[in-house]
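To the team - calcium ion complex, inputs and output below.
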Amino acid sequence: MSVLRPSPIAPTVDFDRDGIQHGFLRLPYSRDDSAWGSVMIPICVIRNGKGPAALLTGGNHGDEYEGPLALYDLARTLDPRHVSGTVVIVPAMNYPAFRAGTRTSPIDKGNMNRSFPGRPDGTVTEKIADYFQRELLPRADIVFDFHSGGRTLDFVPFCAAHTVPDKALEQKAFDAVAAFSAPFSMRMIEIDAVGMYDTAAEEMGKVFVSTELGGGGTSRAQTVRIARRGILNVLRHAGIVEGAVETTPTQWLDMPSGDCFSFAEDDGMIETMVDLGESVEKGAVVARIHSVGRTGVAPQEIRAKMSGMLAARHFPGLVKAGDCAAVVAVRVD
Ligand code: CA
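Output:
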């Protein structure tokens, strides 16, 4: 295996300097409108002496807003005197996608969360992934990556971690989920974990915590409040920010198997038969897909493959074959 070349990304911040720095990860990107141009990815480093390090990201997908809203705010308001250790904040990880308001990058169509471990000589998205893989993740003890549903999904607000082979690491992640104190807390499984930032961090032995806080390509007052309070709670729980964790009751949820997911098998107009947070029985119709090409066609019924609670749903009114239509999760006491 050949040795990877150094990352082309140049940070304008010093990760080992105390105090607060607002700067950029500068990624050279030569193009028609800027021959020697760069992508300037905002980064904030808040450090106060030795101690644990947290790496906080939003905008991994560019059309999800609770994370960026919470993290630009945190970067503006967190006082280094209240910190022990280091907080690195990248509020818009896939910055080109975030600026375009799209899930993937308009430059290369790169989906950040399918691009790990990345490549230093790859596309813009792969270069960002590679920088996180080799430069930022190794410095972190706890990694927190905000997600929401984006334009095409909507979720009940939850904080989540995965089951991982290292049970001590898994417990640390679920303790951080509990500290975040969202209305729902999820043991999450993935449809396909290959190339995910989550997987990269977990394989490196990092405590990895994520969220799904809403969706529809926007944010809500409630979900932004959950994000802002939750991330401070996690930093307090980790001993990085002073102050007590403010918990509120949470409903634990489990995704026990791939039967959680229901996919559309036809194009058409989707009719939600159950709202987010409502109970569903196995076999119940959670959504119907109406054919729109002609009248007189019965709708396709999408049925729950397990009993539980509707945790996520397709958001836009039109749906295509293969879209995720609904996700059912199981309430855990
Ligand atoms: Ca996402």
